[in-house]
Amino acid sequence: MKVLAVDDDRDLLELIGFALAQAGFLVVKAADGPSAVRVFDAEAPDLVVLDINMPGASGFQVCEAIRARSSVPVMMLTVRSEEEDLVKALELGADDYLTKPFSPKTLLARIRALLRRAGMESSAPPLASGRVALDVEEHTVRIGGGEPVRLTKLELRLLQMLLSNAGRTVSSDRLLVHIWGHRNSGDRQLLKQLVHRLRQKIEVDPALPRHLQTAAGAGYKLVVE
Amino acid sequence: MKVLAVDDDRDLLELIGFALAQAGFLVVKAADGPSAVRVFDAEAPDLVVLDINMPGASGFQVCEAIRARSSVPVMMLTVRSEEEDLVKALELGADDYLTKPFSPKTLLARIRALLRRAGMESSAPPLASGRVALDVEEHTVRIGGGEPVRLTKLELRLLQMLLSNAGRTVSSDRLLVHIWGHRNSGDRQLLKQLVHRLRQKIEVDPALPRHLQTAAGAGYKLVVE
DNA sequence: TCCGCTTATAACCGGTTTGTAACCGCCGGA
DNA sequence: TCCGGCGGTTACAAACCGGTTATAAGCGGA
Predict the structure, then answer these.
(1) pTM to 2 decimals?
(2) Which of B19, B31, B106 sits opposite A15 (nearest CB)?
(3) pLDDT digits (tens, 9 = 90+) for A90-103
């Protein structure tokens, strides 16, 4: 499930991105109207989170541009007091809105609701990036053009986390939390094992991993080219 | 500026940690009361963000333990409805509180206010300054336009501290506390070593350091031009 | 029930990182 | 001039880390 987040406030954008990635979404970002439209065309996200208040009030224009080419769900972000903005946004085809400030938990809940409403909730969402395509429903990955490989529950979770942060290093702690909901710190071993087993499955040469790479002292990352 | 975040909700803890790190704080985490106290002793943070509602209601105990040994600012996190908890927290010496759910922006604002009140205000330490760019996630630095250099955990902490005080001299004591958490003061040797090793990695000529300079009798400073 | 797959735990290895000690040269004060 | 402190350097040992292998424990389906 791919989400496009648009906000000119870089900090907030990062935060939204982080919360979404944490929840297993694949996130693409844009910091202004024009690039939002560009990214939308390039990435074909399944949902858009769009700040209204951007330089040039271009949130509206972006919403309009998106609606002109797709019926993808759009979640608008507004500041509390601007009611008429809201009306305008909904008229332009936005599906829901959230007033700032909001907690990431709320954002996630609303996004899930929106996806459910749009009937996209769990409809075969192959989370994919680059050469790695993950099918959460089927519990399989396909690397490049190869055969789908069956994954266990834990392997799936690991890959989900890495894939939603593709190209970036994910710390062992975050992985531990995401996969096991955390336990005592002795569980470095579990992660070690899981990575090892996953490599056996998805790497051509598990000894020289090309996708699931380790960042010594930091964690692991997924290279998708 | 080092912040200890304590919460048993792992997701929220991650999120708080991320928001703080993003804002340039150095973050240490703990997920329960006992480990919170342990980490506090080991890390000597400049501020604590502490959830009250933890298994065993131990938020209070942690607050008490912290107050018993330090006057460091403490920010409590509570759920909306529990007023008497709040009163108790403030009686125990908490400096401020925040009711869940809260937006990270709010948290940051309140933390900054708290630091200002405590007279510890800092000048928003960025992760990159001048020719030195530190990537905390990847455990790497890039000097000028050069190749990223891998850092060990300790090297990373040293650079973090120096970078957040770029251009200013940081005393050996502060560095010791920040990197190792209080130890016997005889451990100058450790710092000597660490500086030496880091210079080998990031200086063109480690004998004539251009970035990691010695302030004789005082400490070290990072020159970023 | 047994079988097979998945997950947990432990032990070992080699390489890296960190801790400890000793030595050097420099400088300032006795 | 000698001495002691300080910072830099070299050397080595201890601890740790990640990969690997092996084996046991849990669990679901035939």
Answers:
(1) 0.62
(2) B19
(3) 777 788 888 777 77
